[in-house]
Structure formats: C-alpha cells, structure tokens
Amino acid sequence: MHDRRHKLSDGHSRYPGYDVLSKVSGPSWNEQTRRVIMRRLAIDSTPHFFTPDEYRMVAAIAARLVPQSATRAPIPVPALIDHRLHRGTMDGYRLAGMPRDQDAWRLGLKALQAEARMAYGQRFDELPEALQDVMLRRMEAGALGGPDWGTMRCRDFFHKRMARDIVLAYYAHPTAWSEIGWGGPASPRGYVRLDFDERDPWEAAEADGGDDESVRRINRHVR
In the prediction, which pLDDT does 210 show? Predict the structure, then answer.
C-alpha cells in the first residue's frame, strides 16, 4: 500500500497556519454546519457495530490505506466507519453482487482474517506491515479466494466497500480538510472566485516554495 508518512512527518504543510475549525464561530458556516461538524468530532473510539477484534482489524487496514502524520492527532477512521454502520446510514443504493454494507464488512473482515491465519498463522492486525500490504494488494487484485468469502468477491469488497468507506471517512473529518486546504461546506457563503489561481478570502492560501511564513500569516486570519 502507498506509504506517505515520510512526506508528512517533517511537519511541513501545504497550508501552513490553516485550521478549518477556526471557522466554527465565523461567518463561513451556518448553524446547521456547526451542529453536523461538532457531532462528528464528538464520535468516540468505543465500537458499537464492530466487535473489538473487528475494530482492531479496521484500524490496521486504515493505517495502511491512509497512513497519517505523526505530527498531529490521527483522524479516527475506524470510529467514523463504526458510527455510520451502527446508525445504518447507507448510500441509498447497492452495487450488484454486494451484500448490504453491514453484512459486507462482517463477511470481508472474517474472510481476510481467515486468509491471514491460513497464510501466516497470525491475525491480520498482528502481521508486520509489509505482510499486511501483501494481503491487501492480493485482495485488491482479486487474488484471495478462501471459502469464507462466500459469493462476495474479495476485489469487490476492496474497491466497492472497504477502501471506499475508509477514504470517505478520512476526508469527512476536519483535520483532513485542513490538510488539503478545504474550507468545509460552503454554506452560507458559497464560492465566488472560480477561475484558476483565484482564492476567496475565506479559503486557505497554499505555500509555494519558501513563502511559508507569509502564507501562515494569511491563513491565521481565514474565517
């Protein structure tokens, strides 16, 4: 799996000084936006859908698919997925050949665990990271075929459910928004300057080369 930790561990940010949560009390967000974000930030790490063993597996998988910076608090990807599954929040559609979301996760984690024990005699989350990557790449390529997968193909679970849910959970969190310079929901302000290289005053400025300090001064006042 792609490992970007070496790019993040030096503390450098493309949007220095920017914290999207500085908008909480400002004019960029309306009350409904504030409520939604605050509820999301209040989700704790106690699993309500996953078993403790499943939760550890999800955490191990997420760490390989969306490795995080050591210089900031991690985005609670497993907790966000657990919360969605516990609440029964769905996409409103289901792709052909895929079980319902909750069933797909239960089946996929059980099958991956069985594959890890069969291949290496260990739980997936106890394997070295290199071996976890081997198994995830094989799943991505459709090369896992143990009986526990049932009628769900491992490749479909990887692409249509597991990786999709993990990436969506990561980028649903304000920490990720600060990382990519996004301002969060555009209500009520909206965006006006839509041409290339134009920035509304409530958007983060991006550092370019050695201008981190001047960009940091701009981003401290973004509201």
Answer: 66
CA 166, 30, 16: angle at the middle one, nearest 5?
A: 60
What is the separation of C-alpha 89 from the centre of its chain, rounded to a whole number of angstroms? 17
With 70 as the cut, is the pLDDT of residue 9 above it? Answer: no
Strands (E), the chain: none
Count the Cβ atoms, other than its own, within 10 Å of residue 72. 13
The C-alpha torsion from 116 through 118 and 120 to 122, rounded to 10°, is: 60
Name the residue with tokens 């649903």: 172
Measured between alpha carbons, how far is 140 from 86 in angstroms, rounded to an integer? 26
Q: What long-range pairs does 126-134 form, CB within 8 A, spacing at least 24?
A: 129/63, 129/64, 132/1, 132/60, 132/61, 132/64, 133/1, 133/64
Q: Are 173 and 76 in contact (CB under 8 A)?
A: yes
Kindly report the pTM of this predicted structure: 0.88
Half-sphere exposure of 25 (CA within 13 A, CB side): 1
Distance CA(170)–CA(67), nearest Å, equals 10
What pLDDT is stored for residue 211 in this prediction? 73
